[in-house]
């Protein structure tokens, strides 16, 4: 396993991140070292607008940079999530990384990137306890080159309502609040959206009306008090702040490290401020949140023990030959790289035998994530086997630890299948949120947007909706005996076992428990190429206010436009047609665009 980066923050283990304490307690005592350049006699006071100000004492000095190299980026990583992609993007652009160990490292940085991850309160807690908050304010007030990403933007504001109110760094007037889902907009805001650039921001010079990737539930709003900071806004039911810029200080709410070429150009502009692009990038047509097209790679070891991308028909992944071998459609890292180049908006890896193997014992899968994230700069989701587990030696691993390892290896989101079914069944039975389930723990530490629930339902036909206690609907295509209704029974263990819960009941329960997105498969349609189960997708996407990914059954480009026109799904996922090169991702995008459906081109 790769060693953690040499930062006292990144040694925070999953158990230390446990929600009960929410303390990032692993910060070393070096924060109180006498060698620190800044003194403890900062006074924090509030001005008459109640804006928190940091008044520096005369003992504070910004030492001339001790770092001789111009190709070093200082990274503030406090270990609360996946900053591997930010690291990879920085390295991809030719820079080395120096991890912040002490506040002094901030003050001495030539350029500082702060990819805030996790929850606002937990981040402020660690910044305050370690003296980083003071150092950050000083650094920014001195107009030193700074780039905050996502939470790294929000923390600059006065306060946040996330589990709060909680005070922020107080450099920019305004309160960070939650998106309002009552106006029909799904929260979290996940996906590729358009920017409205309001002032010259330099780092956004190459964006040119193209989409960038957002994933967040909280946002800062533009106002008269902060207008001198705002460099772009984004619309999602309301105009919120997408980026700020003042002098050398920049921050973006979107994720440049996950925004493909456009995002890399934003980072490049920050890292090489004087550079001019040789080639002017093409102008895009982005105007609003795009529908996403996701490529999915079902991964498992074949009978020789090699990790391969496979694909089933109604979840049967074996060839129907004498040898009965696992269908092999390619190598996971290579295929993911190809789909990134082809324009996939997101890539999902599903470790389809994870339910019976222990994922932390599956080092090749973790390695797949690590290698993929080095060159793929769109979001990566990984699923399979996320649950509490006790190994052969009696060592217990919580689902949070399993998920943390996936995040550390490069995942942006994790997807839970079987365990979410057991958790939802228990929740529906007792009506009690224990706070201990995989869903609750992982979403509390990493945020709802990082937790996808993958549902594997099977259609069960009925003559009447009253024949079952679960939600049943009238189906467009009647069953084999002319049945007009069906309910969608959830399964576990890769479709091997049906459970006493419907997809509708499961979706509502997991939304309640903290899931941020639903990956909605359908065993009947999987691998059939006859189109998505629009009845099912409509049922679920109307039932929840989190984004729903339509999956299973895509065969031609028209199936994608059909699902987006007939349901409110946020994304559509396909596997077989991409693996077999029957339909290129770009053809899907072009078709959707021609049908007037916003996509990232
Ligand atoms: O239960 O938490 O260990 O997670 C296991 C995960 O593996 C679940 O997300 C489950 O959906 C997935 N899985 C398990 N067995 C299979 C199998 O195929 N035998 N794959 C499997 C599910 C379904 C989709 C597929 C779409 C699109 N694959 O992901 O990619 O149906 O396919 P198509 O476009 O070719 O029709 P846990």
List the helices and strands and how they pair.
Elements: E1 43-46, E2 52-55, E3 72-75, H1 84-92, E4 96-99, H2 103-107, E5 112-116, H3 120-130, H4 132-141, E6 146-150, H5 151-154, E7 157-160, E8 166-167, E9 172-178, E10 189-193, E11 196-197, E12 212-216, E13 218-220, E14 230-235, E15 239-246, E16 249-252, H6 260-271, E17 292-301, E18 307-310, H7 332-342, E19 346-351, H8 363-375, E20 380-383, E21 389-390, E22 396-397, H9 399-408, E23 413-416, H10 418-430, H11 438-446, E24 451-455, E25 457-462, E26 472-474, E27 485-492, E28 497-502, H12 503-513, E29 517-520, H13 534-543, E30 548-551, H14 557-566, E31 571-574, H15 576-579, H16 585-594
Parallel strand pairs: 3-4, 3-5, 5-6, 6-16, 7-9, 17-19, 17-31, 19-20, 20-23, 23-24, 24-29, 29-30, 30-31
Antiparallel strand pairs: 1-2, 7-8, 9-13, 10-12, 11-14, 14-15, 15-16, 17-18, 21-22, 25-27, 26-27, 27-28
The structure holds ligand 1PR.
Ligand 1PR binds at residues 296, 298, 311-312, 315, 317, 350, 352, 354-355, 383-386, 415-419, 454, 456, 494-495, 521, 526-527, 551-554, 574-576.
Bound molecules: ligand 1PR
| Tally of DSSP helical segments | 16
Strand percentage:
15-25%
* Uncertain segments: 1-68
Largest sheet: 8 strands, mixed
Mean of all residue-level pLDDT scores: 86
Strand order of the largest sheet: 4-3-5-6-16-15-14-11
**What would the principal axes of the Cα set say about the shape?**
globular
Number of strands: 31
Distance between the termini: 37 Å
Radius of gyration: 24 Å
Which class do the helix and strand fractions yield? Answer: alpha/beta
Helical residues, percent: 25-40%
């Amino acid at each position: 396993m790769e060693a953690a980066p040499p930062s006292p923050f990144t040694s925070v283990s999953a158990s230390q991140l446990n929600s009960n304490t929410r303390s990032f307690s692993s910060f070393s005592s070096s924060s109180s070292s006498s060698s620190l350049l800044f003194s403890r006699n900062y006074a924090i006071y509030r001005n008459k607008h109640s804006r928190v100000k940091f008044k520096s004492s005369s003992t504070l000095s910004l030492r001339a940079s001790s770092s001789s190299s111009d190709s070093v980026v200082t990274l503030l990583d406090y270990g609360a999530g996946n900053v591997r992609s930010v690291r990879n993007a920085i390295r991809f652009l030719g820079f080395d990384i120096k991890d912040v160990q002490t506040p002094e490292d901030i003050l001495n940085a030539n350029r500082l990137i702060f990819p805030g991850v996790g929850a606002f309160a937990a981040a402020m807690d660690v910044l305050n306890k370690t003296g980083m908050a003071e150092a950050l304010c000083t650094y920014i007030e001195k107009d030193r080159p700074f780039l905050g990403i996502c939470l790294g933007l929000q923390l600059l504001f006065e306060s946040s309502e996330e589990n709060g109110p909680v005070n922020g760094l107080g450099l920019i007037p305004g309160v960070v609040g939650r998106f309002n889902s009552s106006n029909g907009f799904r929260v979290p805001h996940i996906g590729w959206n358009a920017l409205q650039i309001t002032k010259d921001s330099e780092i956004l010079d190459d964006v040119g009306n193209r989409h960038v990737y957002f994933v967040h539930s909280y946002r800062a709003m533009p106002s008269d008090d902060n207008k001198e900071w705002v460099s772009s806004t984004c619309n999602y039911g309301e105009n919120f702040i997408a980026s700020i810029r003042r002098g050398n200080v920049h921050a973006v709410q979107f994720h440049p490290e996950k925004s493909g070429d456009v995002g890399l150009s934003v980072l490049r502009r920050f890292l090489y401020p004087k550079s001019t692009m040789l080639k002017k990038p093409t102008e895009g047509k982005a105007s609003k949140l795009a529908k996403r097209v996701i490529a999915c790679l079902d991964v498992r070891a074949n009978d020789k023990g090699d990790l391969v991308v496979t694909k089933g028909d109604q979840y049967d992944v074996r060839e129907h030959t004498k040898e009965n071998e696992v269908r092999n459609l390619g190598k996971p890292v290579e295929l993911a790289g190809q789909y990134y180049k082809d324009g996939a908006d997101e890539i999902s890896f599903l470790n389809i035998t994870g339910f019976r193997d222990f994922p932390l014992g599956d080092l090749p899968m973790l390695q797949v994530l690590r290698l993929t994230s080095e060159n793929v700069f769109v979001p990566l989701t990984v699923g399979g086997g996320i649950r509490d587990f006790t190994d052969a030696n009696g060592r217990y691993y919580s689902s949070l630890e399993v998920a943390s390892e996936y995040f550390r290896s490069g995942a942006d989101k994790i997807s839970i299948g079987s365990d979410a079914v057991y958790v939802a069944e228990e929740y529906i039975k007792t009506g009690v949120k224990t706070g201990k389930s995989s869903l609750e723990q992982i979403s509390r530490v990493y945020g709802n947007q990082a937790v996808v629930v993958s549902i594997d339902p099977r259609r069960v036909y009925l003559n009447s909706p009253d024949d079952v206690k679960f939600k049943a609907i009238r189906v467009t295509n009647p069953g084999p005996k002319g049945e007009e209704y069906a309910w969608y029974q959830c399964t576990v263990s890769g479709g091997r076992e049906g459970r006493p819960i419907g997809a509708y009941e499961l979706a509502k329960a997991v939304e309640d428990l903290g899931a941020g997105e639903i990956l909605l498969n359908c065993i009947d349609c999987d691998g059939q190429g006859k189109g998505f189960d629009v009845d099912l997708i409509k049922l679920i996407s109307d039932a929840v206010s989190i984004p729903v990914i339509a999956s299973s059954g895509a065969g031609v480009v028209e199936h994608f436009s059909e699902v987006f026109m007939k349901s409110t799904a946020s994304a559509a996922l396909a596997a077989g047609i991409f693996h077999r090169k029957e339909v290129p991702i770009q053809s899907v995008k072009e078709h959707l665009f021609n049908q007037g459906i916003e996509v990232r081109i």
